[in-house]
Specification:
single chain; alpha/beta; GMP Synthetase, Chain A, domain 3; Rossmann fold; 2 domains; eight-stranded mixed sheet; three-stranded mixed sheet; 13 helices; globular
Length: 373
Amino acid sequence: MATQEDVLEALKKVRFPGLSRDIVSFGFVHDLRVEGGSVIFTIRFQTENPKVGEQIAHDAEEAVKALPGVTNVHVSLDIGARQPAASAPAAQGGILGDVKYKIAVASGKGGVGKSTVSTNLALALRSLGYTVGLLDADIYGPSQQMMLGIEGRPQIDESDEKIMPMENHGVKTMSLGLITDPDTPVIWRGPMVMKALDQFLTDVKWGVLDFMIIDLPPGTGDAQLTMTQKVPLTGAVIVTTPQDVALIDARKGLAMFRKVNVPVIGIVENMSFYICRHCGEREEIFGHGGGRKTAELLGVPFLGEVPLDPKVVVGGDSGEPIVVLDPSSAAAASFRDLAQSIVKQIESGMLGHTHGPDEHHHHDHDHDHAHAH
């Protein structure tokens, strides 16, 4: 006859969809009883997506049924809708309170294509059917209005004197570039910078959104720390390139988020490789595997590689990012994969501040599926 140990061993083969970790090590299996040939247990976790629950319950039932001596399997499914990590602080401060998930995109240094990743990630999430805002918090090099092809100045809503965000390709955006002269460099002192960012957070009518992508300035200084402390972030994505020097900077970014207790959703490697347009060969110009290696080393998920494609640059300059300009390209596909990976990470219930300041849980959870994507 099957024992409890046999049943748990069988359930270890049931993975959370899209991740490499199983439902037993996630702690989803409860109240397991084996009575002769009957096996009874509950699968309990939180998700926004009931289909995920059904899929796991089905896979679990099939796995246990296959055990010798098991004649009857009864699975109870208990899935509660997950409260976004941001809900508690948002209720207090009301900052972006109508935005379900707030994702910061960061990099330890400039020049890694962080703004390109932010814009295309926002558009990829939009293409998956989510409502999305893009907040350009990169004060010294605001570029989102150019990348999204937005011209003109934001309007003020007369009724409440709030700023209306600009919109293109279905994404709402606000950028300092929309309210400053594009040909004049911004030479602002810290307090003025923070005042401008405060306005973007509290005086812009973002409305109800599923996602807000916040494009942080490169580096790990005061502006970044203040933003991460002001906004109740769901999590952060760190952009790097394959070179070792960029990876050292990625570590600084990770350390910054750990300091303020913001979960790191994972690392994205941009400009990962080049696909020759003549022969289709994949050229690894800057070396390879650095992003994955760093993710494993730091115990955070690796979210994927974005190839170097001249069209990415052309699209960014012309206001039609690659996800819109050439949806069938490898680069566009990698941004859609990135968006899906982020959604899975959030919906799997592994992010959030449920563990308080003791962060070891994040690391345990995340380390196991650094390979998942």
